[in-house]
C-alpha cells in the first residue's frame, strides 16, 4: 500500500507542478496587461523558464526539483504566517479591528442608492479626474466630442461619496466648481488667502464634510480654497493651478500649498507624463482649457459621465475604467483568507521597505518635473511644498524620501519656495493618534490638525 501510494504521489508531482506554475503565469499575465509593474514581468519570465526547463530533467531530478519548489513555497507561506503574528501593530491589529467593529459591507453604489431613498438631493460617487482623463474614457465614448474639455473637478453642489476605509462610508459636499469647499465662499480681503493642491489626503478622503485640511485651516481665520483631487500627480496639480489659481480668478491667493504624498505621486506623475492630454500642459506653460470660464459646460460633461457609467455593462465594455468596478458586498473574513493566499503581509513588508515600484529613473524624472512646476508657480505665487509621509514610512522609520525632498528644496534657493517635512513632525507622535483605529490609510482628524498647525506656522 505504501509503495502504491508513493508511486502514485510521484506520478502526480509533474501535474501539480505544471498546474501551479501555469496558474501563477496566468495570474501574472492578467496583472501585467492591467498595467502592473515590471517586477511582475520579471517574475513571469522566471516562471516560464522554470516551467520549460522542468521537462528536460530526468525523473530523479524532477523529483528533487519538485521538492525544492514545494519546500520553497511552503517556507514563503510560513514566513507570511509569522509576519501576521509578529507585525501586530499593522496587519493583525488592522484585521482584528475590522472584525470588531460594525463594518458597513455595502458597496459604494449600494450605499448611494440607499441614500437616495432617504432624500432626493444630488448624490454621486467620486470623480477621479486624472484617472478618468488618463483612461481615455471620453475619447472612447460615441456621441460626444470631448477633445476640447476634460473636467478636473467633481460634479458641483452635490454630495460626493468617496471612502469606506474604516467601516463607515464618508462623503462631502461640493462648491459651485465641484471642489470640497463651502457652497458660499465669503472671503475677507483683510485675511491671508491660501489655495491648496494635492491628492486624496488633501481633498478630504475618508472624512466627513468639514473635516478636510482646507476646512481645518479655514477655521484658523484664513481664506482657503481646497483644490485637492484624489488620484492625481504633479501635472494634474499644476493643471488645476493653471485653471483655477494662477490668475486669481476665484481668490487673490497669497500662498499655494502643494501636499505631496510621495509614493502615489511619483507613480501618478509618471503616468501623466506619458498622457497625450497632460503633455499639452507640460509642453506649453500657457495652455489652458479655461475650465473656470466654461464651468457650465464642465458640469454638463460630468452629468454625461455619470449617466454613461450607470448604463448596464458600460464599465465591462470599457476596461480602461476597471478601477471603477466594485466587488460585491465586502466580506471581511473572506478578504483575510484571500490576503493570506496572496501573501499580502510579505509583499507589504517588501514593497514598503524597498519601494520596488519606484524605479530610480522614475524618481529622477519626478524631481525634474517638480523642478519645472516649482519654477512656473513661484513666478506668481509663494509656494509651500509639504511632504506627507505614509503609514509605512512612519512605522518602519523610513526617512530617505522626505530627506531627499528637503535637500532638493533647499538647493533651489528660491525666495518664494518653502518646505514642510511632516515626517519629522509626525514621528514625534504615537502612530495610533495619526491614523483612525491606528491602521494604515488616510490621516486621522488629529493628524490633519497637526498638519494644519504646521502650515499656519510657516505662513505666519
Keywords:
Rossmann fold, alpha/beta, globular, 8 strands, 54% helix, 460 residues, five-stranded parallel beta sheet, three-stranded mixed beta sheet
Please describe what this structure looks like.
There is one protein chain. This protein has 460 residues and is α/β, with parallel strands linked by helices. It has a domain of 216 residues: Rossmann fold. The strands form two sheets. The chain has a five-stranded parallel sheet, sandwiched between helices. A three-stranded mixed sheet has the order 1-2-3, covered by helices on one side. A hairpin with a 6-residue loop joins β2 and β3. The chain starts with a helix and ends with a helix. About 2% of the residues have low confidence.
Determine Rg (CA atoms, Å).
25 Å
Which superfamily, in CATH terms, is the homologous superfamily of the domain at 180-293 and 358-459?
Answer: SGNH hydrolase
Annotation, overall tally of beta strands: 8
Uncertain residue ranges:
32-36, 328-332
Order of helices and strands: HHHHHEHHEEEHHEHEHHHHHHHEHHEHH
Helix content: 40-55%
Helix count? 21
**Would you tell me the overall average pLDDT?**
82
Strand count, sense and closure of the main sheet? Answer: 5 strands, parallel
Amino acid at each position: 500500500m505504501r509503495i502504491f501510494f508513493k508511486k502514485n504521489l510521484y506520478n502526480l508531482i509533474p501535474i501539480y507542478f505544471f498546474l501551479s506554475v501555469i496558474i501563477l503565469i496566468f495570474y501574472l499575465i492578467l496583472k501585467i496587461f492591467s498595467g502592473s509593474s515590471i517586477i511582475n514581468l520579471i517574475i513571469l519570465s522566471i516562471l516560464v523558464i522554470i516551467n520549460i526547463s522542468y521537462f528536460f530533467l530526468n525523473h530523479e531530478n524532477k523529483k528533487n526539483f519538485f521538492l525544492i519548489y514545494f519546500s520553497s513555497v511552503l517556507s514563503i507561506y510560513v514566513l507570511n504566517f509569522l509576519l501576521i503574528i509578529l507585525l501586530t501593530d499593522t496587519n493583525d491589529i488592522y484585521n482584528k479591528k475590522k472584525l470588531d467593529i460594525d463594518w458597513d459591507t455595502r458597496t459604494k453604489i449600494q450605499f448611494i442608492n440607499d441614500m437616495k431613498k432617504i432624500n432626493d438631493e444630488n448624490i454621486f460617487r467620486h470623480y477621479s479626474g486624472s484617472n478618468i482623463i488618463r483612461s481615455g474614457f471620453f475619447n472612447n465614448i460615441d456621441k460626444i466630442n470631448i477633445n476640447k474639455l476634460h473636467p478636473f473637478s467633481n460634479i458641483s453642489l452635490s454630495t460626493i461619496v468617496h471612502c469606506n476605509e474604516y467601516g463607515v462610508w464618508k462623503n462631502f459636499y461640493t462648491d459651485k466648481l465641484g471642489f470640497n469647499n463651502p457652497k458660499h465662499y465669503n472671503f475677507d480681503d483683510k485675511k491671508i488667502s491660501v489655495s491648496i493642491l494635492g491628492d486624496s489626503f488633501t481633498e478630504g478622503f475618508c472624512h466627513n464634510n468639514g473635516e478636510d485640511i482646507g476646512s481645518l485651516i479655514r477655521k484658523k481665520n484664513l481664506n482657503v480654497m481646497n483644490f485637492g483631487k484624489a488620484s492625481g500627480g504633479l501635472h494634474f496639480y499644476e493643471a488645476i493651478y493653471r485653471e483655477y489659481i494662477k490668475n486669481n480668478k476665484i481668490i487673490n491667493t497669497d500662498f499655494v500649498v502643494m501636499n505631496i504624498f510621495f509614493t502615489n505621486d511619483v507613480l501618478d506623475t509618471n503616468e501623466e507624463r506619458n498622457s497625450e492630454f497632460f503633455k499639452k500642459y507640460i509642453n506649453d506653460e500657457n495652455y489652458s482649457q479655461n475650465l473656470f470660464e466654461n464651468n457650465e459646460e464642465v458640469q454638463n460633461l460630468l452629468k454625461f459621465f455619470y449617466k454613461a457609467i450607470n448604463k448596464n455593462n458600460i464599465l465591462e465594455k470599457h476596461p480602461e475604467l476597471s478601477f471603477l468596478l466594485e466587488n460585491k458586498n465586502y466580506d471581511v473574513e473572506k478578504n483575510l483568507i484571500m490576503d493570506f493566499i496572496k501573501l499580502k503581509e510579505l509583499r507589504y513588508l517588501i514593497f514598503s521597505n524597498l519601494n520596488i515600484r519606484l524605479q530610480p529613473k522614475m524618481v529622477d524624472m519626478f524631481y525634474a518635473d517638480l523642478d519645472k512646476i516649482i519654477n512656473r508657480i513661484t513666478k506668481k505665487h509663494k509656494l509651500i511644498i509639504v511632504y506627507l509621509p505614509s503609514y509605512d514610512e512612519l512605522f518602519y522609520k523610513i526617512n530617505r524620501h522626505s530627506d531627499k525632498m528637503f535637500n532638493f528644496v533647499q538647493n533651489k534657493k528660491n525666495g518664494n519656495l518653502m518646505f514642510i517635512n511632516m515626517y519629522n513632525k509626525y514621528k514625534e507622535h504615537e502612530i495610533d493618534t495619526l491614523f483612525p483605529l491606528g491602521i494604515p490609510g488616510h490621516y486621522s482628524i488629529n493628524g490633519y490638525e497637526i498638519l494644519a498647525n504646521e502650515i499656519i506656522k510657516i505662513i505666519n
